[in-house]
Every structure is written in structure tokens, then in C-alpha cells.
Amino acid sequence: MDADGKTLFVESEGGLHLTDHHSHHVHHHNHQLFRQIRQIALLFGVIGVTCFILYHSADSFQSLPHSFYSPRHDQSGNGLVKLKKVLEKAKTEDRTVIITTLNEAWAAPNSIFDVFLESFEIGNQTQRLVNHLVVVALDQKAYSRCLALHPHCYALSTNGKDFSSEALFMTTDYLEMMWRRIHFLHSVLKLGYNFVLTDADIIWFRDPFSRFYSDGDIQIACDFFWGNSSDRNNLPNGGFNYVKSNHRTIEFYKFWYASRAAYPGLNEQDVLNKIKFDPFVSQIGIKIRFLDTKYFGGFCQPSKDLNQVCTMHANCCIGLDRKVHDLKVTLEDWRKFLMLPANLKASHTSSWTAPQLCSFIPVNLPTSAKNNVQQERKN
Ligand SMILES: *[C@@H]1O[C@H](CO)[C@@H](O)[C@H](O)[C@H]1NC(C)=O
Ligand SMILES: *[C@@H]1O[C@H](CO)[C@@H](O)[C@H](O)[C@H]1NC(C)=O
């Protein structure tokens, strides 16, 4: 555990990962922790292989041992009551909530959370959406900051503990938190709520709901979108998705979470890229749609149309300071666009002045995708 409680998310950095959801704060005195995590990871590897074998020898997913699936952090008891209360208050008429997760670094004044909230203020008809936003705080400081700024805050517990009553968040690593989030979202679906999950480093310019497909169970934004919303070769980004609560999505999230064991060491997004081709996913009958970066863009592949864009994600970006800087630049671009007279808006062609600090070409793309990306960059 980090003594000052600041290391909340350890990011899969090093430029090897396509996207980077969260800030990276690794302190030198954490070597001890990392040694422990390595040992735990090794253990998980062993468990993973065991479960992988179990899974593949089983006729269906349902025969996975239950104790593996919902071990430590089920949304239960007090946590579940609180969660229901928050969701009930924040839901839209059709039981949809917007969910984001926050840690201390992101919640600090003048950091990601402030920029995120500001985007709702200056977006087009996005102000009312804030009433449906549930902020899931991953530690005590993020929870306090949320309470100071926002009506719907939820402290996510781990190991049955409630962060809100703890002085320090018992930190684990990035992977653990991202998987925790998948598990949490599964709980939300089981309670019968649809959700739009948005990383807080995604700024909102317009109401996205009219851009969602009527027939998608899961609709997911992309780092790179190749033009066909049904094509699983698109490269999804787990940081923004719209998921309807039904038996297919509940089954899918259960499978996604359990698949962690089959791919030890991968984050939830990399595992998604594996399991999106899994026959079991077809068997569930789930309809996955990939969202066009024209509406749901990011620094990897920015929307080229300010008249249509709904969101901009600080993906393809490493480091909290860079993200904050470039998101602020992006908000400034948006402000300038809003000030243009209507006729100039319509004919507006000039693109974003960001990313400035964030830009990098991800290196772990499949070769085919790499060629597409290079082509993109030339255009
Ligand atoms: C904002 O939304 C309104 C209503 O949908 C629309 O008429 C207007 O053109 C939008 N403005 C921008 C800048 O998109
Ligand atoms: C889009 O992708 C789906 C799934 O791969 C395929 O069935 C469909 O034919 C594609 N549509 C077009 C227009 O290429």
C-alpha cells in the first residue's frame, strides 16, 4: 500500500498499450508492493490456467465454479442498498445512468474531473445529463471531492469494505481496478439499469443518445473505427460504452469478467479484443455495435466534424498532465467553435488544435490495423 494513499491506479504504461485510461503514479517506495503484486500475479496465473482448463472442459460457462466467479467483492449488503439508492436517484425515465469512475489524482482540483464537469456545462444540451451522472469513487478523497461538487456519488467497496469510511484506500494495481469496474458494471446490469460508461478523460459536447443504435445490446466507442459498426475488427475502447440491461449483457459481462483468468496479465480491454471473437459470445446472441469516431472520437482518431461530434477521449495518451493539458485545449477549440456565427459553423472545416502533448502512434496494433492507422495519419 502506498503510504500517502496516492497510488490508486497503476497504468499499463510504457507505450505498449493502445490506450491509457488512467493516470500513472508510481512511487519509488512501492517496490515492495510490486514484488508482492508480482507474486500475486504469478498465483493468479496458476489459478488462471486452472480455470482456463476448467472452462474449456466445461460444456457451458455456467459450470464454472461459482466460488471463482464472485469471490470477494460482490455488491452485497450495505453496499448494494447504497448503490440502489444512488442509481434510483440518478436514473432517467428508462432506467439509464451515466457512470464514471474517479480516483484521487483525477478528482483533484483543476484535474480531469473538473475538465470533465466543465464539458457538460458548455456542451450543447448536456447540462441536464449531469443529473443522471453517477460518480463511482475509488477512494476516500475522490469520494469527498465528488460530494463537494456533485449530487450522485458512490464509494465503491472492495473486500466488503466501504472506502468512504476508510482514511486510506487500500490500493492495488491498475488491472485490479479495471477488473473491479467490470465486476461493478455487471452488478449494475443485474439490478436492471442500462448505463453509459464514460471514462472521466472523455469530454462531452453533445447528448450522445440520439447517436446510439436501436438494436445494439452493447455499443462501444473505438480507438480506431474502420467504417462498419458491426465489424468486430474495429478496435474498441472500454472507456466509453452504452449497455442495455438484459439477459445477454448480464451473461456477457459475467463471461468477460471470468475471462480474466484465461488471459492472465491482460487488462479488460485487451481481453475484450480476444473474447469478441469467442464462439461463446455468438452463442449468447449479444449484439455488439461499434460507435463511429465521427461522433465518439478520441486523440487516436479525432472526429473530423465539430458539427456532429459528441465526445472526445484523451486516449492514445500517456500521463495525467498531458491529458489535462490537451483536454483543456480541446475545450478551448469547442468554445471557439460555439462562438462562430451559424453560417461559419455549418461550413466549419478547421480541425482540433489538440492533441499537442498526447499524440503517439500505438505500437501494439495488429499489422493490418497499423497500415490503416498510418494511412489515417497521412490524410
Ligand atoms: C445545439 O442543439 C440544438 C438543438 O438540437 C441545435 O438546434 C443547435 O444547432 C445545436 N448547436 C450546435 C452548435 O450544435
Ligand atoms: C459489416 O460487417 C458485418 C460483420 O462482419 C458484415 O456481415 C457486413 O456485411 C459488413 N457490412 C458491409 C457494408 O461491409
TrEMBL record:
SUPFAM superfamilies: Nucleotide-diphospho-sugar transferases (SSF53448). GO terms for molecular function: glycosyltransferase activity. Its main location: Golgi. The keyword Hydrolase does not apply. One of its GO terms (cellular component) is Golgi membrane. It comes from the Eukaryota. Keywords: Cell wall biogenesis/degradation, Glycosyltransferase, Golgi apparatus, Membrane, Signal-anchor, Transferase, Transmembrane, Transmembrane helix. It is an enzyme of class 2 (transferase). It is found in: Golgi apparatus membrane. The chain crosses the membrane at residues 40-58. GO terms for biological process: cell wall organization. Its EC number is 2.4.2.-. Residues 129-327 form the Nucleotide-diphospho-sugar transferase domain. The keyword Ribosomal protein does not apply. It holds the Pfam family Nucleotid_trans. InterPro entries: At1g28695/At4g15970-like (IPR044821), Nucl-diP-sugar_transferase (IPR005069), Nucleotide-diphossugar_trans (IPR029044). It is a single-pass type II membrane protein. Belongs to the glycosyltransferase 77 family. This is Glycosyltransferase. It comes from Actinidia chinensis var. chinensis (Chinese soft-hair kiwi).
